[in-house]
Input
Amino acid sequence: MLQCIFLLADSGEVMLEKQLSGHRVDRAICSWFWEQAIAQGDSFKLLPVIASPTHYLFQIVREGITFLACTQAEMPPLMGIEFLCRVADVLSDYLGGLNEDLIKDNFVIVYELLDEMIDNGFPLTTELNILREMIAPPNIVSKVLSVVTGSNIANMNTTLPGATASCVPWRTTDLKHSNNEIYVDLVEEMDATINRLIVVQEMRVFFHVHSQSFDSSLDPERHGERGVKGYTTNEMFSETTNRQKII
Output
């Protein structure tokens, strides 16, 4: 469970602080982190997990912005690192980039996104498709309304997106394609070893299937009705093995 998230500028300034649980993390942890970063150089910033005297720290650096998360509880390190990467990707898409000025100019949007993305220290809604339906990306109109009215209600949607209850949260709700199509690419790679007499010593063939679907329905039976044949994992390995034996 994450207890706090900090966004640090390239100068070490704390641009944003988001407390995630009842246990408040003091900003002194950021001072300790930055002193260590200055003392140890760039190699310290390459460490994704850092053990401080009081907390475990997770960090990533994007475009000069350091995303720092703190916890005192046992948790999978990859979950903390992956969540920070997801936050950075979402902010970059919303703001059109990542830098100190963009984050300060859109402080309210960033805070609202963090409110929706994590709940009580646990990742909640991280799909960009759902977040866009809940929180409108910043634009000139929303900024003017925020300045005039002093509130940011215009950015928030009052209804819960339908994709939150979907088994495929990244898929846009009520998606309709003009043509229901599936494109399949079959990619074969061959590695061979030959001696100086140009005699094949060993040969391997690797078989990959890449597909892209434009089907408005999620019902897998529709693919069968349209006569689209796919390969299962066992069939793929079986075909690869047979090809190796033949060669």
Summary: Strands lie at 4-8, 14-19, 49-51, 56-62, 65-71, 118-119, 122-123, 181-194, 200-214.
